Amino acid sequence: MAGIFQRASKLRTALRCLSLRCSLSSTAGTRLSPADPYGPFLSCLSSVPSVVSARGLHAGADGPEPSPAAAPERRSFSRVTPEDLAFFRKVLPGRTITDPDLLESSNVDWLRSVRGSSEVLLRPQTTEEVSQILSYCNSRNLAINTQGGNTGLVSGSVPVYDEIILSTALMNNVLSFDSISGILTCQAGCVLENLSLYLEDRDYIMPLDLGSKGSCHIGGNVATNAGGLRLLRYGSLHGTVLGVEVVLADGRVLDCLTTLRKDNTGYDLKHLFIGSEGTLGVITAVSVLCPRKPKSVNVVFLGCETFEQLLQTFQLCRGMLGEILSAFEFLDSECMRLLNTHLKISNPISDCPFYVVIETSGSDATHDGEKLHNFLEEAMTSSFIADGTVATEDSKIKALWSLRERVTEALTHEGYTYKYDVSLPVDRIYQMVTDMREHLGDRAKSVVGYGHVGDGNLHLNITSPAKDAALLAAIEPFVYEWTAGCQGSISAEHGLGLKKRNYIYYSKPSQAVALMGNIKAMLDPKGILNPYKTLPDNLQ
Amino acid sequence: MAGIFQRASKLRTALRCLSLRCSLSSTAGTRLSPADPYGPFLSCLSSVPSVVSARGLHAGADGPEPSPAAAPERRSFSRVTPEDLAFFRKVLPGRTITDPDLLESSNVDWLRSVRGSSEVLLRPQTTEEVSQILSYCNSRNLAINTQGGNTGLVSGSVPVYDEIILSTALMNNVLSFDSISGILTCQAGCVLENLSLYLEDRDYIMPLDLGSKGSCHIGGNVATNAGGLRLLRYGSLHGTVLGVEVVLADGRVLDCLTTLRKDNTGYDLKHLFIGSEGTLGVITAVSVLCPRKPKSVNVVFLGCETFEQLLQTFQLCRGMLGEILSAFEFLDSECMRLLNTHLKISNPISDCPFYVVIETSGSDATHDGEKLHNFLEEAMTSSFIADGTVATEDSKIKALWSLRERVTEALTHEGYTYKYDVSLPVDRIYQMVTDMREHLGDRAKSVVGYGHVGDGNLHLNITSPAKDAALLAAIEPFVYEWTAGCQGSISAEHGLGLKKRNYIYYSKPSQAVALMGNIKAMLDPKGILNPYKTLPDNLQ
Questions:
Q1: Per the record, where are the segments of Low complexity compositional bias (chains A, B) (predicted)?
Q2: Does a structural domain hold residue A94?
Q3: Which of A263, A280, A313 would best serve as a mutation to test chain B binding (most B beta carbons within 10 A)?
Q4: What average pLDDT does the segment A125-143 reach?
Q5: pLDDT at B51
Q6: Which domain holds residue A464?
Q7: CATH number, residue B123
Q8: From CA B244, how far away is CA A394, in angstroms rounded?
Q9: Confidence (pLDDT) at B430
Q10: Same domain, yes or no, for B106 and B127?
Q11: Smaller CB count within 10 Å for chain A: N or C?
């Protein structure tokens, strides 16, 4: 006991601070920056992806490759004619873009890993305009790539060949907000951060928060079933999205834009479109159930000697923090080394093999502080944690979060990075990192693990001085087979897009994939919506 | 101020008790009985529905009518032959039931309102057996009615004609439970209450609780997207069900029985089956994300002078109770009159036009008590509540809940009852009751409203001395048009089943219903699964 407290001097001090703070509420209402691994990049993104940010990322080291490199041959869609352009200009005067310079940023994905060759960007403002465009394109057999903030990580949001880019950027109006129920209805092109700001003024928050919030669109979030930081607390978009309005491939408008928490009248069609990556319809509006803004937020940064102790900490934390727990994230010592080396971020506690970021969000600062204090005392008494520090000020809260958020940025300085985003049973999360390290031996420069423990979501990153075909061959399919071996998901939150579509069978049985194909054929018989994405090439 | 406290003497006393209790935790771990309006009946149900409980309910006054009375003509399914029975007996030795006495309870719905004429009841134990049965029935064009606990309220769980009844009753094994993640995987026929008891031993709870928990099956809950008491806190089954295993109409097994919180690999097919009422496939197993068991539960019963004040109380409560609020239910003074008159239950506070039951569930009894105390003081100071009482003991908690739970039972003594279950924008909930009262004038004996304010879910009940065609004509379609007029749902949590299938257009646009028909045709081209249910007769 005494030994623990001697070792964990910072934590002892922090506990005293927390005890003191329990009688205050100075940080009530504090809002945190997101903890998405891609946070620091995406939130800096304006319209053109940063070259620096893409450097060294998987497939992006030498600039974006043409998308077809990763796709099957161009399907027999029509090509855009002057008559087509005349039609688009009539429907969207001044919002039919053909200038190659203006199209550049929409043709390249955020990671700068692939490049399409679209020559037309359409910017509708209304559902009716989207309907007219799709009806026309369907009749003309013209392929469409719907694009929100273009912040996706699997090349799902850019054209592969010459698909027409349909941007939701000008569909950015809040349609209604009910301050009693907390239900927001808005167009698909609203930027997530703008919605968050809109709601904060009304004492609510969005149920999701992502590093890309400054750029991503809510329609894109819903279309890709975005996860992010708040999933542990508020659940997935399948639970918080109450309704969607969708334009189908043939231009029909499907109005499922209900604002009801309960509605058991027939099949709940909206779920088909949540996570379908724009392949089944174009989401034009959504309604979302929003939680009340927490009055109190706390963050602690802890060190654990083993991953087993980290899991014990998680269990204890769920029991003792209960309803106020809003994040439980981890990073390993390799991540800390990269933060130290490349970003000069120092470790605020003593060196440990594993680190944890815990966030609480609640309605009473005193109660939250007491719960956190009791949990930390118990965790120390039980020897689950070796050291730790508690954030009691806004700046320190942000500093602690940055340890988790900036790992991806640190990785970009390490060389070429092979990135994986997998879901695993919580108790197997780190075994994958250990096994991969052993499997690769000296072939990899480093193998690092971090992610959302609370959601069973590991971000596995493997670095190399440069692109290395032999290394890739050693990683894949090993990583997918390992994931499949424990019934995990080979894409936890990033989706399949162009890059991972053919790996779907590692996580879904063929019966399920075949049924997905049937649904695609039913809703988009000509296959004009976001072709070459999500579904595998060998689908029949 | 002083006036309020003088009037609310019971509440003042209660607040003192609560303050005292804040230093204790005597009721930690208290579990509450459910607040579903049908609670007292369904939880008494063993296998045969109680005649008493059904007396006076809509369409049940004179005993169950043949189901076809409400259905279109029998479709051209095959009839069961001796060869079919021989096949079933080979697959299910000793579990192919043809004794009419044993079939009786499975042919009649719980409300005793309709009666099918099935002559075969099949009781499989495994998914493989279900697969063999469906494959055979599909090839033979034999219709199937899948039945869980047969506790539904829209006659969705009983045959209409001679459909074969496929019972999940013997598929009642827990398959796995992960004590770190709280993820339960079990067969579809597990009784909800048994799962709750299993989990309580492991410090978890099911994310749903229903009055029918003693009889209903988890597979039926998922197939009907059951709502219930905990929805306000833990959300709908679309959020908490992580995976399902489904046998399709042709016998193929669709394995979506994932136990992952995050999985973005293709379309999330499980949602098609949640709430599809057995018309798209037979759910054979589910995996569910279970919340930790709350350490502290409190209940208060309050009176409000106006519905506007009740809504203000709800708003205040959401802000001040925040993350510990687990139920916000209401009943009107007519409900209280029925409780007094028929069940001799006395009002524990002074007479008010509206009453509220608020439940909190949290991880710290002291904190929860303090939050509740502060909320009640503020609500009184703001004159939102006129009187109230706080439950500090288990017996009193149950007594307060019974005021909400036993309204349905009280209604059965009032004569013939026309029952409606609608979702509305929260601020319109009671306007429907007021408008209906005005609309019906002296034609109705009483018009009462109660339900789940937190979910925007009203249970509207209209009583009459006896069945009254003129009264029914005055109620319908008025009630559906009123609901549609504010974009509500004509079935919030009960589903459509046989009884409400043709009213679907009041809540869903024709495009959506047509798409539902396409999905049905894709998954069950012969229409053998639960025919005459959910989808309207005029669907093509």
A1: 56-71
A2: yes
A3: A263
A4: 98
A5: 27
A6: 296-486
A7: 3.30.465.10
A8: 43
A9: 97
A10: yes
A11: C
What is the spatial order of strands in the sheet that A144-147 belongs to?
A96-97, A121-122, A164-167, A144-147
State which of A439, A454, A486 marks the end of a domain.
A486
| Nearest one of B289, B180, B261, B202 to A310, comparing CA atoms | B180
Average pLDDT per run of 10 along chain B, which is 540 residues long? 40 55 32 29 29 30 69 94 98 98 94 92 98 98 98 94 98 94 96 97 93 93 92 94 98 95 96 98 98 93 97 92 94 97 96 97 95 96 95 86 89 88 93 98 96 92 93 95 95 95 96 98 98 91
Residues 6+ apart with CB under 8 A from B91: B124, B129, B132, B133, B136
The ipTM, to two decimals, is: 0.89
Q: Which of A486, A503, A526 is the last residue of a domain?
A: A486
Does A175 lie in the same domain as A267? yes
- The angle that helices B429-440 and B307-321 make with each other, rounded to 10 degrees, is 160
For residue B6, what pLDDT is reported?
40
Pick the closest to residue A319 from B180, B27, B292, B368 (CA basis).
B292
Instruction: Classify strands A446-452 and A457-464 as parallel, antiparallel or unpaired.
Output: antiparallel
Residue B363 is assigned to a structural domain of this protein: yes
Is A45 a residue whose pLDDT tops 70? no
Cβ contacts of A504 on chain B, cutoff 8 Å: 265-266
Query: Helix (H) and strand (E) counts for chain A?
Result: 21, 18
Q: Say whether both B250 and B335 belong to one domain.
A: no
> What is the number of other CB atoms lying within 10 angstroms of the CB of residue B122?
23
Same domain, A108 and A197: yes
CA distance to partner chain B, nearest, from residue A82 (Å): 33
CATH code of the domain containing B387: 3.30.70.2190
Residues B181 and A425 sit within 8 Å (Cβ to Cβ) = yes
> What pLDDT sits at residue A69?
66
Asked, for residue A536, whether it belongs to a domain, the answer is no
**pTM score, two decimals?**
0.89
Chain A hits for B203, CB-CB cut-off 8 Å, are 319
Query: What is the C-alpha separation between A468 and B482, in angstroms, rounded?
Result: 66
Same domain, A220 and A234: yes
Element (H, E) at A103: helix A100-107
How far apart are alpha carbons B160 and B158 in whole angstroms?
6
- Single-letter residue type at A454: G
pLDDT at A128: 98
Model confidence over A288-340: pLDDT tens digits? 999 999 999 999 999 999 999 999 999 999 889 999 999 999 999 999 999 99
Confidence check: pLDDT of A374 > 90: yes
Q: Do A151 and A170 sit in the same domain of this protein? A: yes
Tell me how many residue pairs between chain A and chain B have CB atoms under 8 A apart.
267
Contact B363 A319 (CB under 8 A): yes
Inside any domain, residue A29: no
C-alpha distance from B82 to closest chain A C-alpha (Å):
33
Q: Tell whether B394 and B287 lie within a shared domain.
A: no
**Alpha-carbon distance B386 to nearest alpha carbon in chain A (angstroms):** 21
| Per-residue model confidence (pLDDT) at position B408 | 83
Question: Nearest CA to A79 among A169, A167, A168, A159?
Answer: A159
CA angle A60, A231, A535 (to 5 degrees): 50
Using pLDDT thresholds of 50, 70 and 90, give the confidence band for residue A40.
very low
**Is the bond into A82 cis (omega within 30 degrees of 0)?**
no
d(CA A424, CA A487): 7
